[in-house]
Design a protein that fits this description.
The protein has four domains: 195 residues, Rossmann fold, CATH 3.40.50.620; 134 residues, Rossmann fold (3-Layer(aba) Sandwich); 191 residues, Valyl/Leucyl/Isoleucyl-tRNA synthetase, editing domain (Isoleucyl-tRNA Synthetase, domain 2, Alpha-Beta Complex); 62 residues, Ubiquitin-like (UB roll) (Roll), CATH 3.10.20. Helices cover 35% and strands 20% of the residues. The chain is built from 26 helices and 33 strands. The strands form eleven sheets. A four-stranded parallel sheet has the order 2-1-24-25, covered by helices on one side. The chain has a four-stranded antiparallel sheet with strand order 6-5-9-17. The two termini are 38 Å apart. It binds ligand ANZ and zinc ion. Ligand ANZ binds next to strand 11 and strand 15.
Length: 792
């Protein structure tokens, strides 16, 4: 028999699988349930790194397992190919972003194929191709008609170097996530999606999802629902009042001043009453320069200014209090005005220290708590008139109810979630299908004119000048492009019918496959991508396009594979492992299974070449075991039992993404079987089926070697073995009987059996008897519930 040659067999089977269209499922297969298995599609960076391999290997093990379990599995792939890096690389290398992207796609396709994954390439989507972004634009227009798109001038984060608006999450510690430049604020017109319309639904929907708890928590925090009250503080000598939003109505007797946000429109209306207006105006101008991150309270020192001539009345106790303007109060949250309680809020406390404002404690600290600083916790009320002595949680509701009854407050709910700005002042993205006419204003591009093709040059005049779809007069096209998160918010839908030129997707196909049964990808997408995709699904449902509520029923994140030195792989550390070289040398099967072996999928592990080599040795042993295969016969009872246990354990482990322990069950099995003189073919074939999800090529090669002359049937067209329940009873175990350390028999024994009884049972075995013959037993080594060894 030839040696194990991964290089030869891997290419061979990849070709056969493709030719036989093994992984191109149709919508309906009799007797099979559809299973939509999705990995997050890669960005066209140009190179598949080991992290991708880790992700796709584990995901593929799961997909192939489901296939063997009899599901009709759809596992598509594509590329997220619009975005800044292409543009930056294009500028750097003096080439068109399109050419750069296409070249990368070609290379990455080859790399992905080399893994031996079951992707259905006939459904491939590429977000920068017109046959895809046409539908991205189409969805924009549907959202526009539905009232989910609007245009507004907003203060945005502006990266002076990338010349683009950045979303808050693209600003890391005040700097551009991509280039590291300091982000400055700028007033810019842009298009927004009304994701806030769905805030409550996006929050509620999380409860029903089988997602990692941590990811759900991140989404909940991002949506940031706060329940509290809006309370009106009348102004002295003015007809108006200031409305604050608070989640701590219980602290109202501790309010010592109010703070209004610098952008608050009410400031302008109070201009004539504010005695120090010129100073205030200067402060407002300065505040407009600070970036959003600094404003969110991260700034070292708080700033602000008292509004001279203005004071407000606390509606709870009629006390007169001063009013400040300060930029730690944000305009786009709550009402943009707060009631400050320095005794019970850290930010207010810092501000009060700075301006020598009084503190008034209204919630008692628990005994033992230091009396210094602010106390933000709950406790018993004091200095709060009729509410003294109550627990603060209770007082919160009672004070709120009281003020509501008096007409001084109303219950209010606010969300941190903001509408989604989708305008990007970049070239390499889907053009926003809107036209501006000097007479008719903004007009949507008629659907029949889609796609609005991306010009070959950024902002070319020919692209810009067009005619108004309403009056036919000269008009200008929007030159902004869509945020690439828009592209990736709906690609899972397009996969089900990616070649359709008439529709975004046929309703029947949507019904057949969606929602996605399992979604696998990086934890870095826990917030934005997943939230946006969920929003799209809900909006598409309201458009009647889909009839489900959530796109991804189950979600799993992969862990990180660290470099050989145990730290994150990075070029600067020089610890990057290049998978391409390894495939050449060791084969994809070994890498796939080694990556799966490093740890539970969600935890990742450390890359070790010696580990990969160990995996190669294991696969060679599987290969060589074939020499022992006989057409008939039976394994020893113990080994039979072990096989049944392995089948059960592997199924369970794969289901919970513990591929590492699934593999070790197989390794234990192999070691045991190597002790047998003969392996029955039926058992060896089962072994191959169990191995197949991990090493599809090797398993296929060995499987086919038993099928010479028969009609082609892939091992992936067979079924995962069923284990025999009666053989894996929990109350028994396999007693290994050794003579001088060599396994001579394996016996079924009751759990907890004592040495004497075990010895008697072992000595009763015909095999053991024949090996022992007349030899005298010198010593007995007994390991409870495991083995008995006779030294002779
Ligand atoms: C009085 C108070 C007393 C507050 C106290 C807190 C503690 P969450 O839970 O995050 O929603 N706040 C309201 N609007 C704000 C704005 N535009 N900019 C900055 N801060 C704002 O936070 C709600 C609390 O954040 C509100 O409750 C308000 O301060 C502050 F012991 O009101 B609180
Ligand atoms: Zn017009």
């Amino acid at each position: 028999m030839k040696d194990y040659q991964p290089k030869e067999i891997e290419k061979k089977w990849q070709k056969v699988w493709e030719e036989k269209k093994l992984y191109q499922p149709v919508e309906k297969v009799k007797g099979k349930k559809n299973f939509y298995h999705l990995v997050m599609f890669p960005y066209t960076s140009g190179n598949l790194h080991l992290g991708h391999w880790y992700n796709y290997s584990g995901a593929d093990v799961y997909a192939r397992y489901r296939l063997l379990k009899g599901f009709n599995v759809l596992s598509p792939i594509g590329f997220d190919s619009f975005g800044l890096p292409a543009e930056n690389a294009a500028i750097k290398n003096q080439i068109n972003p399109r050419d750069w992207t296409e070249k990368n796609i070609e290379r990455m396709e080859g790399q992905i194929k080399s893994i031996g994954t079951i992707y259905d390439w006939s459904r491939e989507v590429i977000t920068s191709h017109p046959d895809y972004y046409r539908w991205t634009q189409w969805l924009f227009l549907q959202f526009y008609r539905q009232g989910l798109v609007y245009r507004a001038k907003r203060r945005v984060n502006w990266c002076p170097s990338c010349q683009t608006i950045l979303a808050n999450e693209q600003v890391v510690e005040g700097k551009c996530e991509r280039c590291g430049s300091s982000v400055a604020p700028k007033q810019v017109d842009h298009w927004l999606f009304k994701i806030t319309d769905y805030a409550e639904e996006l929050l509620k929907g999380l409860d029903s999802l089988d997602w990692p708890e941590r990811t759900k928590t991140m989404q909940r925090n991002w949506i940031g629902k706060s329940e509290g009250a809006e309370i009106a503080f009348p102004l002295v000598g003015q007809p108006s009042s200031l409305a604050v939003f608070t989640t701590r109505a219980d602290t109202i007797f501790g309010v010592t001043y109010l703070v209004i946000s610098p952008e608050h429109p009410q400031l302008e209306t109070l201009k004539s009453a504010i005695k120090n207006w010129p100073g205030v105006e200067r402060y407002l101008e300065k505040a407009a320069q600070a970036n959003v991150f600094e404003r969110a309270g991260q700034k070292e020192k708080k700033t602000g200014l008292r509004l001279e001539g203005i004071s407000a009345v606390n509606p709870a106790n009629q006390e007169e209090i001063p009013v400040f303007v300060a930029d730690y109060v944000l305009m786009n949250y709550g009402t943009g005005i707060i009631m400050a309680v320095p005794a019970h809020d850290q930010r207010d406390f810092e501000f009060a220290q700075l301006f020598h404002l009084p503190l008034k404690e209204v919630v008692k600290r628990p005994a033992g708590e230091s009396g210094l600083g602010t106390y933000e916790g709950e406790g018993v009320m004091k200095n709060s008139g009729p509410f003294d002595g109550q627990p603060s949680e209770k007082a919160r509701l009672e004070i709120q109810d009281w003020l509501v009854k008096e007409g001084k407050a109303k219950a209010a709910v606010h969300y941190k979630l903001k509408d989604w700005s989708v305008s990007r002042q970049r070239y390499w993205g889907a053009p926003i299908p809107m036209i501006h006419c000097p007479d008719c204003g903004w007009q949507p591009v008629p659907e029949k004119d889609l796609p609005v093709l991306l010009p070959s040059l950024a902002r070319s005049p020919e692209f810009q000048s067009t005619t108004c779809p309403r009056c036919g007069g000269p008009a200008k096209r929007e030159t902004d492009t869509l945020d690439t998160f828009v592209d990736s918010s709906w690609y899972y839908l397009r996969y089900v019918d990616s070649q359709n030129e008439e529709k975004i997707a046929e309703a029947e196909k949507i019904k057949a496959w969606l929602p996605v049964d399992i979604y696998i990808g990086g934890v870095e997408h826990s917030i934005l991508h997943l939230l946006y995709a969920r929003f799209f699904t809900k909006a598409m449902r309201d458009l009647g396009l889909v009839d489900f509520l959530e796109p991804f029923l189950k979600l799993r994140h992969q862990g990180v594979i660290l470099g050989p030195d145990g730290s994150k792989m990075s070029k600067s550390r020089g610890n990057v492992v290049d998978p391409d070289d390894l495939v050449e040398k060791y084969g994809a099967d070994a890498i796939r299974s080694y990556l799966c072996f490093t740890g539970p999928f969600s935890e990742g592990g450390t890359w070790k070449l010696s580990g990969l080599q160990g995996m190669v040795r294991f696969l060679r042993r599987v290969w060589r075991l074939k020499e022992k295969v006989q057409p008939a016969g039976e394994l020893s009872l113990g080994h039979q039992k072990q096989l049944q246990q392995a089948i059960k354990k592997m199924g369970e482990d794969i289901e919970r993404f513990h591929f590492n322990t699934a593999l070790s069950a197989l390794m234990i099995l192999l070691r045991a079987w190597e002790e047998e003189k003969q392996i029955p073919k039926k058992d060896y074939l089962q072994f191959l089926q169990l191995l197949a999800p991990f090493t599809p090529h090797l398993a296929e090669e060995l499987y086919q070697s038993f099928r010479a002359g028969e009609k082609f049937q892939s091992i992936f067209q067979t079924s995962w073995p069923n284990y025999r329940q009666e053989m894996i009873r929990e109350d028994g175990f396999t007693l290994v009987v050794q003579i001088n350390g060599k396994v001579r028999d394996q016996l079924e024994a009751p759990a907890g059996i004592e040495e004497k009884a075990a010895q008697a049972q072992a000595l009763n075995s015909p095999k053991v008897k024949s090996f022992l013959g007349k030899k005298k037993i010198q010593k007995v080594i007994f390991v409870k519930d495991k083995l008995i060894n006779f030294v002779v």
